[in-house]
Write a structure and sequence with these properties.
2 helices, alpha+beta
């Protein structure tokens, strides 16, 4: 009887552990940039800065509006470091000069906390940046998650007087 009770207890414990393991899988967060265009003679670049105190492991892609993947990148970003991933338009075999694409980054939610992303497009010939935008918050759900163009914020009103 004692052996049967121990066997039943072991089976119950293993069942609970299996159930718990299946429910604690990592939550993956996806960040997508705003769409942007890249033409022959240009390169698209994703820059990622790690402002956290732990390494961030990411998987990323450059995709078009239909979800076709033009390039993939993977990397580990040490605390305080930046990495960049490029997609040179000249290396893609497409009939059109200009492609509308976006960048997408995936990682466990906890890994993206502290990540800062920006996207730029520059000319291959002279390195001149033609477009740049950023998102300060790809891993922090408490901050907005939509990328924004790099424009200065509107100044706050500082008027005062008897009517204000």
């Amino acid at each position: 009887m004692k052996t049967r009770t121990i066997s039943t207890a072991v089976i119950a414990l293993l069942s609970l552990l299996t159930l718990g393991a299946s429910q604690t899988q990592a939550v993956i967060i996806k960040w997508s940039s705003s769409p942007f265009g890249v033409a022959f003679g240009q390169t698209a670049r994703v820059n990622l800065l790690n402002t956290s105190d732990h390494a961030i492991i990411i998987n990323g892609k450059f995709l078009d509006g239909d979800g076709s993947v033009f390039g993939e990148f993977r990397g580990e970003i040490a605390p305080g470091k930046t990495i960049s991933f490029d997609l040179n338009r000249d290396t893609l075999s497409r009939d059109t000069n200009r492609l509308e694409i976006h960048a997408q980054i995936e990682a466990p939610r906890s890994d993206l906390k502290g990540a800062v992303a920006s996207v730029e497009v520059f000319n291959n010939a002279d390195g001149r940046t033609t477009i740049y935008f950023r998102d300060r918050s790809i891993g922090d759900p408490g901050i907005r998650t939509n990328p924004s163009f790099a424009e200065p914020p509107e100044p706050e009103s500082t008027t005062s007087g008897p009517d204000n």
